[in-house]
């Protein structure tokens, strides 16, 4: 009996040892298993995050590709690599506003207005001057703030109908003829002062001639008024530019006009005014 009990005791100890070893092995396996699956799941998370983040990037390329498909060069670039696609996105966003942004429509001697174009209009003041409805508030706000600064700017011309522009142009041709010019020469000279019908920003509805109440003459003396000084300094904050700056007549085809303000939107206006550009230069259309 004693011997048998000792043997049982010994068997029991072996069993306990085996169980203990199994338990330790089990614990080790569980711990390793947990940490292993932890790594895997975190790895999956990262890759799923990077997939998610790559999805919007991929989807954002589609509209830019659609935009850049208008310009064959950039669409060819976007097909090469994602890097090229990114750079073409930047180019596309810079180029597309000039082509499609209503605020940046170029109207000059070589870029006439679409025949019969009439914008949706809104009152710009109480004197019957009208402006493109999308930018009328910006114009009114600019003038209100100038008045708040103690100045007296007034609009002397804003939106013009085709008939009005035609009549203004014919009047100017008559003036040139009275100065001794004839035929084509009179017309050519008139075009440097009054835009040929269809080539005036006033017909676009985004331009306003603004003068000082105390000095209503459209000449370079306008530049000396406190009103013009204020407008030139602040117009970009409201999305306006001095459209025909000094020294740019060769590009704009129009004399220096320190009274003609054109709405282009705040972003473009700030760049144009701070860099001393004219609209043609900003749009890459300077010839
Ligand atoms: Zn004007």
Explain this structure.
The protein has helices at residues 2-68, 72-78, 82-100, 136-148, 162-178, 183-191, 201-204, 226-234, 249-252, 266-275, 279-282, and strands at residues 121-123, 130-132, 153-157, 207-212, 240-242, 260-263. The protein has 287 residues and is α+β, with helices and mostly antiparallel strands. The strands form two sheets. It has a four-stranded antiparallel beta sheet with strand order 3-4-6-5. Strands 1-2 form a two-stranded antiparallel sheet. A hairpin with a 6-residue loop joins β1 (121-123) and β2. It has four domains: 1-39; 74-102, no CATH class; 105-160 and 202-282, Muramoyl-pentapeptide Carboxypeptidase, domain 2; 163-199. Helix content is 57%, strand content 8%. The site of zinc ion has 5 residues, from β4.
Using the alpha-carbon principal axes, give the shape.
Answer: globular
Known CATH architecture of the largest domain: 2-Layer Sandwich
Radius of gyration: 36 Å
* Name of the CATH first level of the largest domain: Alpha Beta
What ligand molecules are bound, each kind once?
Answer: zinc ion
Strand tally, please?
A: 6
Helix content: 55-70%
Instruction: Report the sheet-strand fraction.
Output: 5-15%
Structure classification? alpha+beta
Through-space gap between termini = 118 Å
The total of helices stands at 11
The succession of helices and strands, N to C, reads HHHEEHEHHHEHEHEHH
Biggest sheet layout: 4 strands, antiparallel
Q: If you average the pLDDT, what whole number results?
A: 76
Q: How many domain regions? A: 4
């Amino acid at each position: 009996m004693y011997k048998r009990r000792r043997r049982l005791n010994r068997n029991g100890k072996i069993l306990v040892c085996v169980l203990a070893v199994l338990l330790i092995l089990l614990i080790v396996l569980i711990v390793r298993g947990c940490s292993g699956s932890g790594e895997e799941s975190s790895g999956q998370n990262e890759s799923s995050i990077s997939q998610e983040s790559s999805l919007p990037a991929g989807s954002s390329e589609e509209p830019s590709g659609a935009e850049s498909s208008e310009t064959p060069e950039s669409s060819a670039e976007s097909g090469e690599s994602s890097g090229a696609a990114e750079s073409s996105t930047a180019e596309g966003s810079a180029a597309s506003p000039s082509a499609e942004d209503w605020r940046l429509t170029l109207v000059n001697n070589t870029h006439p207005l679409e025949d019969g174009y009439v914008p949706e209009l809104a009152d710009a003041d109480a004197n019957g001057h009208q402006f493109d409805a999308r930018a009328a508030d910006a114009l009114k706000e600019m003038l209100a703030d100038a008045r708040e600064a103690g100045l007296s700017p007034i609009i002397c011309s804003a939106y013009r109908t085709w008939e009005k522009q035609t009549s203004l142009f014919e009047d100017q041709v008559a003036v040139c003829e009275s100065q001794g010019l004839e035929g084509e020469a009179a017309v050519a000279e008139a075009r440097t002062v009054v835009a040929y019908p269809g080539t005036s920003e006033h017909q676009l509805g985004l331009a306003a001639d603004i003068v000082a109440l105390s000095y209503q003459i459209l000449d370079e003396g306008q530049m000396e008024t406190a009103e013009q000084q204020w407008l030139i300094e602040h117009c970009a904050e409201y999305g306006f530019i001095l459209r025909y700056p000094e020294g740019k007549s060769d590009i704009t085809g129009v004399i220096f006009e320190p009274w003609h303000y054109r709405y282009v939107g705040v972003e473009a206006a700030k760049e144009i005014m701070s860099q001393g550009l004219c609209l043609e230069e900003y749009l890459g259309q300077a010839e």
